[in-house]
Every structure is written in C-alpha cells, then in structure tokens.
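Reading group handout, session on sequence-to-structure problems. Before we discuss, look at one worked example. The prompt was deliberately terse, the way you'd type it at a terminal:

> structure Glycosyltransferase family 1 protein

The input record follows.
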Amino acid sequence: MDATALRIALFSGNYNYVRDGANQALNRLVGYLLRQGAQVRVYAPTVRQPAFPATGDLMSAPSWPIPGRGEYRIPLGLSPALRRDLKAFAPNIVHVSSPDPLGHRALSWARKRGLPTVASVHTRFETYPRYYGLAFMEPLIEAMLRRFYRRCDAIVAPSDSMAQLLRDQRMNYDVGIWTRGIDQDIFHPDRRDPAWRRSLGIADETPVIGFVGRLVMEKGLDVFSDSIMLLQQRGVRHHVMVVGDGPARSWFENRLPDASFLGFQSGPDLGRSVASMDMLFNPSVTETFGNVTLEAMACTLPTVAARATGSESLVTDGVTGRLIRPGAISQFADALETYCTDADSRQRAGAAAHRIAARYGWDQVNQALVDTYVRIIRQRERGALALASPVP
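And the output record:
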C-alpha cells in the first residue's frame, strides 16, 4: 500500500480562515498528499474572506464565533450535508487535527464504521486557561483531551519533547512524530537586509531582538515585555522588532513603545524580517513545535526560549541558544543581554542553529505522516482496534 491508495478525510477547526503555523502545516500536508496521488477531503469552518486560499477540496462545516475571540470559530459538528459528503467520499482513514465538537463527531463517525483514525496535536490547549485567570481548569481540560485522544488509533506530535509529554499524560499508547519543515529559500541568512533595517531607524551596530507570532497573551507577551523592560533598566543597547498581529497588539505596543511593529508578514517579506533580526525571543509555553524558532534558526539566529515542549526539541541550551525556566524574567534578560553584548557568542550560536535547521525539509516530514497512515490502516486490517474509552 502506498499514498495512491489513501482516501483521507481531514477535519480541522481552522484550515485557512486565520493564518497560523498549524493550519499552514496542514495545507502543506494536503498539497504533498495530492502530489503523491492520494485523495483528500477537508472539513472545516469557512468564512467569506479567509486568510489564504485553501489547498485541496474544502467542505464548509457549520460554526459559531468564539465569544471574546471572534476571529476564531467553533465548528458545531457534522451536519447532514457533511455526512452525505463523507459517505460519498468513502475515506479509508480519518485525520482529526483539533479536539473540538467537529473532531469528536468525526471520531464517532469513523469508529461506528470501523475506520482507522489519527489525530495530530498542534498546541497545548490545557495551558491556555492560565493566561485568562482560569488555571484551576487545566486538570479538567487535560482529562477532556485524554478522552478525545484515547479514542484514536494513534496520535502524532510535532516534536520529541511534545511526544514525550503526551506519553506522560497518557493521551494514547501510540504516539508518533509529524514534525515541521522549513522553506530554505525564504528563510536563509542571505535574506538579511541592512538597508531595510536602516529604513526602520535601526543602526547597524544595534542588536535586534525579534518576536514573530500571533499577538495573543498565550504567546507569553507579558514575559517578553517584562524581560525587555528589565534590559532597558540595565542600559543594554537593543531594538525590538515584532512581526505579527492579533487582538493583544495594542496592549503589546503600549508595553513596548520603542519597538518596531511590522504587522503580519509572509513569504519573502517575512524571510527578510527574520534574517534582519539578531536573535529570536520566544517565551511561549503553548507551542508543540515552534515553527518560528526553526525559521529563525535557518536564518542563523540564536533563540532565547522558554524551557518547554517544542523549544526543547529545537534549541540546544548553550549551543544554538538558551532555554530558560518559564516566567523567569531575570534569567531571560540575562540571556538576551549576553547575546546583545557579545557578538561572537551570538554568531557562534546562530551558525550552530543554521546547521541544525538544514535537516528539516517539508517532503521528508510529510512522508513520515503518510507512513503512519499506511501503518495504522494495516494494523486495522490485522484486527487492531483503538481503545473504546479513556483509561484513568
């Protein structure tokens, strides 16, 4: 069995209406599958003006805006129209990418028909409540996630560290890796543009600390801004460059009034911005991989990151960057100060990071998931079944 025999029903809570690393990875996956001769059908919420065109055939799932975060939508489940489409498509494997109502209904639909199921894990949903004063809910959400993922034949994580966390949390007995790739043409040190930096008012000798990502509190914006303010108090010369947009942008701009806020960027513009930084600061603990970290590494940037899933699999502490205890403001500032004041240390770490980033190619990582699909289908054919219910 190879990719040409696959008929994949892919369910996503956000396939293309808001751009993020997870749905861009899913679109790249679908593009790869189609090039290999597989049949793919995507089921996800849609909007009139999505962030980018969908790759492949996209069927619209009914949804509602999330209260307080209207840019995101909650898919409500499988409508009669989607059920008819699924029956006509006749998938031989189901891939769910979000533990939302649509994902739950998709799992139930597949299990009722004896179809194998794979879930991809893209973020640490259980950590989100802590950023909104609801940390007491984390054990409940973790239990709900366990119930969801234990209904699947297998789950895949984007990094070794995230896979180990999922095993420790007893999410599933079959945990594989579907990592992320890098576009080496876009993210490359040759994209650095000193003239463009000067146009932003940044002197050549001023170290630039970069942030790349959606501007939401769960990305650690408070830790980032507190660490930068401590650098300022110490008199460390630097400039902050922020690439991205989101609902917390005004809050972030008020905290960092001297920073350059460039908004959302993509393609060559994003590559130029990242390569024109001198280091990446990623204090988030919610990532399961950290696409922006890999992109920065490909541009020969050292990364200062929280010691958390995702970053631990990419950043080698003291070699390609620094891993700091989450929330340790003073230690984050110490690491940033070192890279701001010691150009040799910064360049050594950046060069080491570039060597590691060269290992990641999209076709290789997507083929690994194809291999997982084929393995799970064969296991089902031999009579192996997913667990019927979560184990405490």
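Points for discussion. First: The chain is about 40% helix and 15% strand. Second: The first strand starts at residue 7 and ends at 11.
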